[in-house]
Input
Amino acid sequence: MIGIYFSGTGNTKHCTEKLVHLLDETAQTLPMEEKETVEKIAKQDFVILAYPVQYSNVPVIVRDFIKTNAALWKDKKVFCVATMGLFSGDGAGCSARLLKKYGAEVVGGLHILMPDSVCDVKLLKRPLEKNRKIIRAADRKMEICAEKIRQGRFPKNGLHFYDHVAGLLCQRLWFYGKTKNYSDQIKISDACTGCGQCARLCPMGNLSLKNNRAEAGNCCTMCYRCISACPAQAITLLGDKIVEQCRYDKYGSQ
Ligand SMILES: Cc1cc2nc3c(=O)[nH]c(=O)nc-3n(C[C@H](O)[C@H](O)[C@H](O)COP(=O)(O)O)c2cc1C
Ligand code: SF4
Ligand code: SF4
Output
């Protein structure tokens, strides 16, 4: 077994590590953007694939990873995990359908509520204690899930037909344009000090320094990693002002 994740602000990383560890203490978890990930997946029969939902869809970087490595999925057993700030009808189902197309056997799906990662929009912002409570509930959900998997009863969150309809009607129909392609909408304000932190962290290589200031290209996968990490709060995407930088590690001990 191996756990593969994409995580902007740390929620999905936490969930993947926790779930994989509960199932097999010796199994590895790896971020999708690591070079050796493909090679490591090729050696395993069972893959836990996790990512944050974006407008009830799979982030472009994850869709591209699945498509670029199409041959990798044939006959693999895959369990799809989607983390979310509020709701996604078929967050796990979206990758499941793509993986099935490439020959994977999707054994189940799990939706996990976590703190919201969109740090430049007020909606869904909760006090620290509430976010800690959400993480405790997520951990409990993963414990129950691991127990079910051990009994061979895989949860099927997001995989049913009615989940597909809910994902479509509630979000994708209206917001599909936002997740269709990589974004060129990253904004960098004059507050930028040129520290280079964002460029070091971006999984897409979408940020670079020019004349001691960060500059963004047009291949952002909207993960909010740079936005949450910028010490000068100089980066925004969907909103225009940082409300609260969201990072799993900041929620502290639970
Ligand atoms: C661009 C964007 C769109 C999002 N859309 C949704 C959504 O449709 N539904 C939802 O419940 N959460 C949504 N979220 C919240 C994240 O899915 C959630 O906070 C996730 O746990 C973040 O995981 P990460 O820390 O691993 O990046 C969105 C986040 C981003 C950045
Ligand atoms: S992390 Fe923020 S301050 Fe540092 S270079 Fe990037 S935008 Fe500028
Ligand atoms: S520019 Fe920022 S939000 Fe966009 S992919 Fe890079 S780190 Fe993520």
